[in-house]
Amino acid sequence: MLARQRRPWTSEEDKQLIEAVKRDLKSYKPLNWCTVSNYVPNRSNKDCRKRWMSTHASAEIKITKGAWSEAEDEHLRAAVQAFGPRWCRVAQMVHGRNSDQCAKRWKDTLDPAIDRSKWTSTEDELLLKVVGEMGRKWARVVKDYFPGRTGLAAKNR
User: Fold this and answer.
1) Average model confidence (pLDDT) for the chain?
2) In CATH terms, is domain 11-59 a member of 1.10.150?
3) For the domain 70-110, what is the CATH code?
4) Please, which pLDDT band fits residue 129 given cuts at 50, 70 and 90?
């Protein structure tokens, strides 16, 4: 399967997105991103949600940036316990954080499955070799060679 090509959003697409969100807000709470994406040609529901959250939502929703509080971490743990990795649902329980923030915090920091053991010299050598071959594609590096480690841990190593 080929990865989709990223492309910048045009001002016309932003206008279509804003109008679609306004239209959808009259019908649904929370937003139905599949419906919204029907009004923005060649953009998926995920494209629309990410663009809205990163660019347009701040006027409507207060998104917290920066360090996570212990209370936010507890809300995130409870939400993941309840919903698993359904990040849009999880984010509804972690007020002030969006789905991308919740997923990143869980995968890089809070997931109990993360291997936090000290890196061995063998792992260090393998990491150098693999990065030399694959480049700095951290998620792929850890998925293929260091199960349980995070991309962030490999990058920081």
Assistant:
1) 88
2) no
3) 1.10.10.60
4) very high
